[in-house]
Amino acid sequence: VAWWRVELEQPDARAWLAESGGNAAGLVSIGPGEVRWLCVMPEHWGEGIGTALLATAEQELATGATVELPEGNLRLRRLLERRGWRQGEDLGRREGRVAPEVRYALGAPA
User: Fold this and answer.
1) Please, which residues have CB within 8 angstroms of residue 104's CB and are 6 or more apart in sequence?
2) Is the pLDDT of residue 20 over 70?
3) Cβ of 99: how many Cβ atoms within 10 Å?
4) Which of 6, 71, 72, 74 is at a distance of 20 to 30 A from 88, taking alpha carbons?
5) How far, in Å, CA of 33 to CA of 47, rounded?
6) Is the pTM of this model over 0.70?
7) pLDDT band at 1 (very low <50, low <70, confident <90, very high)
8) Which has the closest alpha carbon to 89: 76, 61, 108?
């Protein structure tokens, strides 16, 4: 959760934190034209927190957005696809990243 604090302090980012029982349950962060982070604590998976956070990001990024995520993050990929995001470019394994990534887009070319 410490990295969430760093993300919340980024000057070009806007972020929303979901809480459950007074504890952090999830975070979405956006920058210009992109979803930078969408994360839900595993103990809160299946509660709709990710869907609600993504909906907030989509509303704020009304003209379209992209998101880059690990290729193997099937949970997030299914959520994006249910909400109308389209898979775009296969980014492969980029420098400094631990897994191959893929880009998704909403309302704009991927």
Assistant:
1) 66, 67, 68, 69, 77, 80, 85, 86, 87, 88, 110
2) yes
3) 11
4) 6
5) 27
6) yes
7) low
8) 108
